[in-house]
């Protein structure tokens, strides 16, 4: 019988495909068929779509960030005309110019004080407002300045820091507190007139030329006080009557409105110096003192007989005018105060959000273990809020590095050199009357170099937080 040929060399027998129930069972066990991997142009097509979506952002980034940075770096190596290459001369001038060095010092003061103060206040507000019912309303009020532009805030605080107490809120409050403890004089510009019986005694005081006698009225005429500046309750001056064994007299405004009247004589149209302090001085010691009545008259006992009458300097002390907030010494702290007023609300909102995520069980456990509120705050609340505090602090540091408008608006032109910061100096150098865009570009590059380490720290911190 012929035998069937065997399998050819290199062939492999394929097992028969199952049919019927066996095929259904096999498919059930094996699961659905796996999708085939994409072939052809699927990979590059996906990358092209992603690049198409990113292209507008990349174009804007290049036009608004990369190109200005590159051009500023290039321009910083040329002179003010942009035609002559000067190398690093502009950078050398930055550290040789006293005005720019002042701007560097002030920028350092801003970086140290402003973010720290705003963050600390935001932390205090966030913690304390959790304990009061009207905390939401308080947060709204504190955060409201963030809705105001820097320009508007600068105008507001330019008025707040006005030197005149009648216009500036800061000085109005300061003068009010000062006058509560040290009352200002009502006669700051009063002085003896022509042929007056009073002479200067040094230190701002005035004395009579001759000793006074009991029973002989004394005249103490002064001029120089505006009629509307006299103390409230002042009445027309009256001639003092002689009293046996006593020294009497009148201190008054020896000036008649509209002219007329007699010099060194009490006229009915003239005003008394109500509250004027009069001292009787013998051998350098005050033996008696009194204050003039509302019509300027006064009475001293027999102790004043033969003494010299003195009007002490306290009668003529200049009225306290407050603090020169926008002077060379305080202008930078004053502008920082305006910045903190705006940004403390920002810090409070972010810290408040972080505080809401703090586990209350930890705080309650610490209190049960006997920890006081200060210990809970210092050892638990602040460490748990450390990431949020870092975010707020770094954000504010970057923000104050480019502060410009507040300083430009609040600081008067006479003290802008004292309040100068790098961003303001950049503007003044590049676009001022003596513009030097080469030096201005160098300042811009320096400002970028100072900001980059803070930005790198922020990026590293965000990556660490993302890996947790």
How would you characterize the overall build of this protein?
The structure is a single chain. This protein has 468 residues and is of the alpha+beta class. It has 2 domains: 89-170 and 325-467, Orthogonal Bundle (MetI-like fold); 198-315, no CATH class. It is 48% helix and 9% strand. The chain contains 14 helices and 8 strands. The chain has helices spanning 21-30, 42-75, 89-96, 98-128, 135-143, 150-160, 169-181, 331-356, 360-368, 373-384, 386-401, 405-410, 422-431, 437-467; strands spanning 198-202, 205-208, 218-222, 247-253, 277-282, 285-291, 297-300, 308-311. The chain has a 5-stranded antiparallel sheet, with no helix packed on it. A hairpin with a 2-residue loop joins β5 and β6. α4 (98-128) packs parallel to α8 and α8 runs antiparallel to α11. It starts with 20 loop residues before the first helix and ends with a helix. Residues 1-43 are annotated as: Disordered. It comes from Streptomyces bambusae. Its main location: membrane.
Total count of helical runs of at least 4 residues: 14
Full CATH superfamily name of the largest domain:
MetI-like
Number of domains: 2
CATH class of the largest domain: Mainly Alpha
Beta-strand portion reads 5-15%
Shape call: elongated
Tell me which oligomeric state these chains represent: single chain
Strand order of the largest sheet: 1-2-8-5-6
Sequence stretches where pLDDT stays below 50 over 5 or more residues: none
Using the 3D structure, state the CATH architecture of the largest domain.
Answer: Orthogonal Bundle
Keywords: Cell membrane, Membrane, Transmembrane, Transmembrane helix, Transport
Protein name: ABC transporter permease subunit
Family: Belongs to the binding-protein-dependent transport system permease family.
Region (Disordered): 1-43
